[in-house]
Design brief:
The chain contains two helices and twelve strands. The protein is mainly beta.
Length: 160
Amino acid sequence: MKQLLRLQLQVLDAPSGVTLMLQRGTHELVPPVAAAAGQLLFELQATVSYPKDEAAPRLGGPAVHGPVQGRFLYVNAGTYAGQADSGWSRRAKVPLPVLTRELVEQALARPDLTLQARILGRAGDGGPACASVKLLDAGWTLAPAWPVPAARANPALVVN
């Protein structure tokens, strides 16, 4: 049986003037659900399945890419995000967590919680993040859903 798990990805220090979009499937682009100066919030639902021969639950769905043992999200920037006049054409590869049954059960039992992670949206050269990116803080964690907590800390956060 497949269930839906809510994930949120916050992009910090995104370069101004460069469009960033989450890639779903091979061509669909998904805009952030919230944005503030240099901060973006993406939200998606991933399917969770329990294959018979595997101990860990498996993430899937249109926004989830890569092999079973190395799932990830793509955050596209510039022309890859549909911004035709951009001088940037990049894509960041955001690693997804290896799940435990306990974590999935906790997340599904509490609709106010999501699996969340943060990344830097700016690469060392000042352009948008690209290639494999590192997760900030503790990586993917189960926490109260943004943007409500983020909006309290940052009143400039605008929900689309």
